[in-house]
Hints:
five-stranded mixed beta sheet, Immunoglobulin-like, seven-stranded mixed beta sheet, mainly beta, single chain, binds copper (II) ion, 5 helices
Amino acid sequence: MIASRRTFLGLAGTAAATAVLAGCGGGSWFTGNGTGSQGALLASAVPLPEPFQVPLPIPPTIEPTNGTIELTARRSAVEILPGRTTEILGYEGIFPGPTIRASSGEELQVRLRNDTEIDTVLHLHGGRTPAEHDGYPTDLIVPGAERSYVYPLQQRAAPLWYHDHAMDFTGPNVYAGLAGMALLGSQEEGALGLPSGERDVPLVIADRSFDGDAAFAYPLADPSRGRPGVTMRYHGGVLGDCVLVNGAPWPVMEVDAARYRFRILNAANARRFDLTLDQGVTFTQVGTDGGLLERPAVRRVIAVAGAERADVVIDFSSVPVGTRVTMTNSLDAGGPGQVMQFHVVRKAASDDTRVPEQLSVIDALDPGAVSVTRDLHFALGATGSGHHGMADWNVNGVTFHDGDVFTAQRGTLERWRLSSDVHHPVHAHLLHYQVGAPGGDGLAWKDTIDLRPGGSAEVLVPIEGYAGRYVLHCHNLEHEDMMMMVNFSVV
Ligand SMILES: [Cu+2]
C-alpha cells in the first residue's frame, strides 16, 4: 500500500529526469513558457495515445434523495490511457466524480465518506455556503471518517463544481482526481428551451502527465507529504502534456447535427485554455461561473483559466454529416494544444431547442453605493518567509498564517482592485463578483477572475451570505498550496 501510494503521489526518478531534460517551454518557472500558462511542463514517461480515438465519457449524474447525496472518496484503478491502468483518488472512485444535479434554492446535504489514506476537505466551488460547511482548508476529514456538508443553495442557477480543498495539498489531491461538476438548475433556466438531457453535456478539461507506470505524475517536494509544495521547477505550476476531457485523453464525441449545451470547466491545476473550434463553427456563450448571461454572445474563443466555467451552446445543425469539428487550445502548439473532437454522425431526428435573445436579468450594482475599495495584489514574496523552503506566493505580502487580510460587512458593496505579477486566477469563497459580460454585452456574475501577467481587474462585490471566516486565493493550485491563500472575515 505504501509503495503504491508513493508511486502514485510521488514522481518516479526516471520520470523526473525525463521531465527536466524533455520539459519543453524553456524559460524558468517564474517567467512562464510561452503557452499563456504559469508553470513548467512535466513530460509523460509513457507514450501517449493518438488524439481523437477514445470516446468521450459522460460522468454519471447524481441527484439528491430526500435532499441528500452520499459520496465516498476512494482510491481506484481506472483505464485512462488505452490498455493501461492509472490509480486515481475519485469521488465514487471515478474522475471526474459524478455530476451533481441540484436545484437553486433547495437545500442540499452532501455526506462525504473518506475511504482514502489522505486527509480531505470538500469545497463546493461557487457555492454560497455557511462557513462551517464551506470546506475551510483545515476542517479535515481524516481517513475513515465522514461528515455532512449542508448547502442552502440560495443563489442563481449556475455551473458549480466540487473538489478537495485540504490545507497545503489541494494541488496533489485534485490532480489525483478529487473533482466533479455540480450543476444548479432553476425553473427560469429550464423554461428557456436550451438543449437538455443527453444534449446538455459537462466537459471537465484538465491536463495530466503520466509516469513510467502510467500513474499520474505529480512532483511533490516530499512524496511522503511530510512537508507541502512541489519541487522548485514546478513552483509556478504543474503543466501536464496530456489533455483529458471527462477523464479521457483527447476524446471524440459523436454528435447529432443539432444544438448541444456544454458546461465547460477548467479543472486543471495551472493550465489556461483558449478554446477554439474549426469548420467555421462558433460558440454561443450563455453563461459564466455565476450563471446565465443576460444575452447570448457568439464567440470564436472561449478562454478559461483554472476553475473558470463557460456555459456554451454549439450548433452542429448546419455541419454536414461525417464532418469532424476539432476543439483546440490556441495557447499551445503541441499536445496540450489539442483538446477534443466532435464527430457529426447523423441528422437530428428533431431539435426544438433554441437560444433566446434574453436569457436572464442581472440588476446592475450601483458603483456610487460602494463603501469600501480594496487593493489586493497577488505576487511572489520579495523576500519570502519561506514557509515551504522557498519564496511564498502571497496576497498583499501576507499568507494564510498571517490572520485576516480584511473584514467585510454584510449588506455593503465593495470594489476590489485586483492586480498580479504573473498569471493568477483569483477566487473568493462565499462572495461573487459582478463584471461586464464576456463579449461586452451586459453583465455577468463570476467567482473566479483571470488576472493576466501584470494584469489588473476591478470588480464589484456585494457582501452577502453568511458571517464567518472564508478564504480568498489563487486557483493555480500550486500557488494556492504555496501560500497564495488568505483569510477574510464576514460580519
Ligand atoms: Cu497564482
